Amino acid sequence: MPLHDACRPAVRAGAGRAAALPVIALCALLAACSSAPTRHGKVEGESFQAGELIQSDSNRMATLAMKENLDSLVRIMDKLYRRNPGEWKKTAESREAAVAYVRIAIMERQPWQELQGERDVAALSLALRPDFTGDRVAAFVYAAADTIITAHGNRTSFTLVDGLDPQRVFNAARNLEIANWILNSRKSSSGQPLLLSNELAEQERNLSFEREMGKIIGRLDLVASFTTERYRRSVIGYGQGLLAGPFMQFLPVR
Prior knowledge:
The chain has a two-stranded antiparallel sheet. The chain starts with a helix and ends in a 10-residue tail after the last helix. Helices cover 62% and strands 2% of the residues. The chain is mainly α. It contains 8 helices and 2 strands, in the order αααααααββα. Helix 2 packs antiparallel against helix 8. Strand 1 and strand 2 form a beta hairpin. This is Lipoprotein.
């Protein structure tokens, strides 16, 4: 038998194995994707409430943004308490209890005693002073929440009779940017960071605090821009009605 005839079956077998490798790799990849452990969640709307009947689209968006911002601040508080356990011990017997106390004070608009009656940006300034000796996590989160609520006219829910000043909402976003920068750069009287927030170690990088603050600032900017655009479009719509009115009348047909 000639040499090339003897080698032909071996060539076909080798080619078959080579062709099968990409198929096996593709199947393995698909199997890995189908069993990925990470769940990204899904968008879910809230159940209908009677109060929505007196809300416009912009009212509803502002209400949802406020809810998400306050929830983000609670998550920030929990993160800061985990990294600074000495702070929650100044407020409660447990981290969970301290979070609950601060949340109630925010939602019920109760003053936080350690802030000495100061509100919004004045409270932020006090909470970020190097010589502040109280629960700095509670004071910072409470003051940040109070700044946001004050900028929204001291409301957390909005209806058709409520209006927003977009400039004040925009200013609140800038104030939180400044507060975030101070928190990450200023030192206490002992030369230590005011609070441990982000982690930038060589082995581990944890920027969850920064991301959550970025979400809050982004939502505030969106509400400010949307409110400004809504007022602007209202004026334009009114002008269009005046100009187009004479040309939009029905013509006689008989």
